[in-house]
Amino acid sequence: MTGDMATVTGNRGLVIEEPLIFEQGSPAKCGVDLPDPADKPDRLGGLARSGAIGLPGLSEPEVVRHYTRLSQKNYAIDAGFYPLGSCTMKHNPRLNERMARLPGFADLHPFQPQATVQGALAVMHHLSDWLLGLTGMEAVALSPAAGAHGELCGMQAVRAALDARGEDHRRTVLVPDSAHGTNPATAALCGFKVRGIPGDATGRVDVAAFKAALDDTVAGVMLTNPNTCGLFERDMVELAEAVHAAGAYFYLDGANFNAIVGRVKIADLGVDAMHINLHKTFSTPHGGGGPGAGPTVLSAALAPFAPLPHVVAEGDGVRLIEHIEGDMQPFGRMKGFHGQFGVFVRALSYMMSLGRDGLRQASGDAVLNANYLMARLGDTLTASFEGPCMHEALFDDRFLKGTGVSTLDFAKAMIDEGFHPMTMYFPLVVHGAMLMEPTETESRETLDAFCDAVLALAAKARAGDAAFFTEAPRHTPRRRLDETKAARTPVLRWEPPAPARAAE
Amino acid sequence: MSTLYFTEDHEWVAVDGNTATVGVTDYAQKQLGDVVFVEVPEAGKVLAKGDEAAVIESVKAASEVYAPVTGTVTEGNTDLAETPATVNDSPMDDGWFFRMSLDDASELDDLMDEAAYAAFVASLD
Amino acid sequence: MRYLPLTDEDRRAMLARIGAASVDDLFSDVPAAAWTAPEGFDALPPHATEMAVERQLSALAARNVPAGSVPCFLGAGAYRHHIPASVDHLIQRGEFLTAYTPYQPEVSQGTLQTLFEFQTQVALITGMEVANASMYDAATGVAEAAAMACRITRRKHVLVSGGVHPHYGAVTESFLRYTDIATEVLDPNPLGIEDLMGRVSEKTACVIVQNPDFFGNLADLSALAAECHALGALLVVAVAEPVSLGLVTPPGEMGADIVVGEGHAIGSPLNFGGPGVGLFASRKKFVRHMPGRLAGETVDEDGRRGWVLTLSTREQHIRREKATSNICTNSGLIALAWTIHMTLLGEAGFTKLARLNHMKAVEMVERLEQVPGLQVMTRQFFNEVLVRLPGHDAAGIVETLAERGILAGVPLSRFHPNYPELADALLLCATETTETQDIDALANALTEVLR
């Protein structure tokens, strides 16, 4: 901010400059009052720390103000429309937060005797029932911590099943070119080689190329459906039959489950494993980057290989199984303790609130909202593929050709208009991708306001006002940041300033 | 006086007698954008044609630099670790990646000359 | 339905604009064989009011015994500490709670600056040069550290001490199971007598230890670090109780190359074990081999200081099958809670809290040493010790005391059912939340049942 607009402090009304905690406070301050420790000889065996750590000291009001000010520099769903494709940024009900904070859930130690945590184990069991009821699958592993972790769970189960069959010649995994980057990374971790499968002109997997690639070296296939172009893979059942006929397994990336929940049972698509992002479909908060949870549902073929722990109903109680029993063949353990329990409570609270009918209505509204964006924007922005989309609408940058405005510039101008941008440059299969996922928790009024703004911006770009875009955003706490500088000379932590050269 | 060859991976190879100097082309550095990190091979590393020899990263992309011919690395341009921007500023000169021996001169027959590479680049857009 | 803003009138108008007759028509690409009519989900309940859901879930919660409602001595990787009220207030601000990963830095400076503060705090307390923006938890962090050590050393053998939390060892073994890396997890080592030095070789990528170890023992790791470095291996140190770093010599000062910690105990309630937050720190020269996200300092177009996610080319959305890890999210909100709690504590509070924990444990041990038939095995410790109850099944004792309203620690048989020699062993932990009367209740009850 320059010229007459500048303030003395650099603050701008509600947007207040805030130094790092390390640049505030003094060692004499503390934000907690603790009782004095007893003064007994220590039993540390001479391993007591010496010297100061270097942490700053702040009082409680200073800490509260610091983090409140920082929070005000964030965009969030609570504040506005967040159409980040592939991320399902829907409303996060606060009932779920209240439920997760009940002392009977939040204040449970993971290794209490099982008789003292029957309600918690029941939560895990109810959650399993919901996930299996919605997907029609045989078993669920609750412990994966997030989507990519769930992928790892499913693909490790595939690997374990192949090993049990003694088929060590199957080491190839087919992954469409439009897949999330986590898919090939996961396959590589399981000791598989990745072979790409091209898409066809309709934005779906090329069925002929897919079938041609299926030979006896193929361990499995990783597909996303609805896919990353926001389209349903129409031939999925046929593809799954071909995969199974070839002796391989079918992994479905469940990132986009929100489009079909309550309408399509995953088992009916011929799936062997799918992770479910509780932080997308079932509305647990993203928290600025986690924690999520990625329970993974498994077919009868893969169920015996599910990782520990397991939760089983026995008599009128529920039992947590932490070690191998009977003929189970778990490939191992994915996570410390019993998984993301706090996330389970939130997701269960959400499912109970919406119920079977509400979840079906939710996926319908999510798809309706995306198609509404497509209908209102499709004549101006360039839709990449034809036909009804699912829960997200994909556009590319052809409408910007010759304007001097890039997808990124366009997104930054949307920020100035008060909207979070869509996902950009993903999927990689179209040029300058713009992937918009409105979710079901947005009103028609919000969608109209968004579309009006986007259409006006598109007109402005085509009218030749490139600078309006390349200089955006202007109204944010910071303008565009120098990512090259950040990467060339990484500064990843605060360092105390070099001491002034004393007494010279 | 060296002779210049090019690969379809946008690498250049300057051959002088038995020694080949390898870097990435101006087209490649423009596609990558600001280069932020380069890892070059150490002297003594034996490379078959097509092996991954070096890594180049920009803010948004990462890619491998492949050995254009078979041979042994004689020198890596270690300055690039400190000043990766040299790849952007001087891709064909100070921004060279590594030098290697040329074990089989016939491998050069598969590479392009300057005119062929210019035509190849023109065909990409 | 309270979460869905569209009215029937909205839906009709929108369908008209789209040119579709019904919402179901939008699903025309779904094959009939895979379509389920509403009745197909009748096994699941219909929607419920907020009041009804609250009633049902509260009833389930009421079937549990909250750890704070009784004397509680459980640790074994999950530690119960008092959390200042302002932590939970601040993390529930919607701007933190309902934001995505900070990919658009201009509208995410709050999350990014917090992560930068988090990284600095983690580096400071572990005695390391750099830290990342967090992992899922310590168990997955240890697994990632093992993979990272293999990338750095280009070796394929990982050695896990028997003093490491059994879940960390199991997760590491599972994570690397189908790679070309061999993971060797040593037998449980309750007395701290395993010979790690004799097992490190020129083939070892890293040795993974824990301090204090799973059984409570504190060790000086300097000699082990020197031996590892002499043989070209890395030393990975896990810390299950982060509060210990306020009192104990940090792993960085003992020569650790990578430090992994479980952070949940600062800022977050027990939550039955999850979500946690993995602290992950290393030497600066290894930063490009590090998994996970990193916030870095830079400037904006107007020259003002700001923060971005950086070095992201290591990540899977760019490098795909060559990524350093397949992990996408971190544990942002739990990291935020950690940072706020740490900031409230500050230097004075953090060191005092650590000393308070240790003194409570010393008090507990002094009292337990008077219980006939009980042997305290751990000689030097922070806030947790291993005891033996010769001639008794520790799990049975724990069940008995639970019926009397005391959560009397974690029996080792819960982790090692196949080691009958550990059946009488019990882990007991004290924190600042432990009262003298709790310790008396535990000691008196043990005296009775061991008689």
Any overview of this molecule?
The complex is a heterotrimer of chains A (504), B (125) and C (451). Chain A has 504 residues and is of the alpha/beta class. Chain A is 32% helix and 10% strand. Chain A has 2 domains: 95-352, Type I PLP-dependent aspartate aminotransferase-like (Major domain) (Aspartate Aminotransferase, domain 2, 3-Layer(aba) Sandwich); 355-475, Aspartate Aminotransferase, domain 1 (Alpha-Beta Complex). Chain A has 13 helices and 13 strands. Chain A is globular, with a radius of gyration of 26 Å. The two termini of chain A are 39 Å apart. Chain B has a single domain, classed as Beta Barrel (OB fold (Dihydrolipoamide Acetyltransferase, E2P)). Chain B has 4 helices and 9 strands, in the order βββαβββββααβα. The N and C termini of chain B lie far apart (32 Å). The relative contact order of chain B is 0.24. Chain C folds into 2 domains: 70-81 and 346-450, Aspartate Aminotransferase, domain 1 (Alpha-Beta Complex); 89-341, Aspartate Aminotransferase, domain 2. The model of chain C has no long low-confidence stretch (mean pLDDT 95). By secondary structure, chain C is of the alpha/beta class. Chain C contains 12 helices and 13 strands. Classes of the chains: A alpha/beta (504), B alpha+beta (125), C alpha/beta (451). Chains in contact: A-B, A-C, B-C. Chains A and C meet through α1, α2, α3, α4 and α5 of A and α1, α2, α3, α4 and α5 of C. Chain B: The glycine cleavage system catalyzes the degradation of glycine. The H protein shuttles the methylamine group of glycine from the P protein to the T protein.
